Amino acid sequence: MSVSTQNGVEPDKKLGTVRIAPSVLVTIVRSAATNVPGVLRMGEANSSEGLSRIFSRETNTGVKIEVKEGAVNADLYLIVSRQANMKEVGKQVQSDVSKAVRYMVGMPVQQINVYIQNVE
């Protein structure tokens, strides 16, 4: 008996492991957040580190990601337009980021915390 395959792979055969780098999650979260109307740019996630961040090679993305028990938790630090309704912008960021992570990575989202640091 022949088993129907898609792309030459048996349906229940495990092919290996897929691992997603944390930087990919940061990129997805950042992109989804900055595409929300009213978000001007990301803020500083590590603003309390003082001068040490000046000499760091890492760029501050305004995003902190933690994966606990297979679920994503994110803290986002934003600069928004002064004409925007901050509460609505925050809710839209939470929704869009959650959808992007679930769709692009296939991981559940536990929390998306939005911190509006400034308006311009």
How would you explain this protein's 3D organization?
The protein has about 120 residues and is of the alpha+beta class. The protein has one domain (about 20-120): 2-Layer Sandwich (Alpha-Beta Plaits), CATH 3.30.70.1350. The protein contains 2 helices and 4 strands, in the order H-E-E-E-H-E. The chain has helices at about 20-35, 85-105, and strands spanning about 40, 65-70, 70-80, 110-120. Strands 1, 2, 3 and 4 form a 4-stranded mixed beta sheet that branches. Strand 3, helix 2 and strand 4 form a beta-alpha-beta unit. The longest helix has 20 residues, at about 85-105. The protein is elongated and about 55 Å long. Residues about 50-60 have low confidence and may be disordered.
Going by helix content, strand content and strand pairing, the class is alpha+beta
- Please tell me what the overall shape is: elongated
- Kindly report the average pLDDT value: 85
Instruction: Report low-confidence residues grouped into runs of 5 or more.
Output: 49-58
Q: Which band does the percent of strand residues land in?
A: 25-35%
* The CATH fourth-level homologous superfamily: Cation efflux protein, cytoplasmic domain
Number of domains: 1
Radius of gyration: 18 Å
What is the end-to-end distance? 67 Å
SSE ordering: HEEEHE
- Give the biggest beta sheet: 4 strands, mixed
Q: Examine the coordinates and then state which fold CATH places here, giving the name of the CATH topology.
A: Alpha-Beta Plaits
Task: Please outline what is shown here.
28% of the residues lie in helices and 26% in strands.
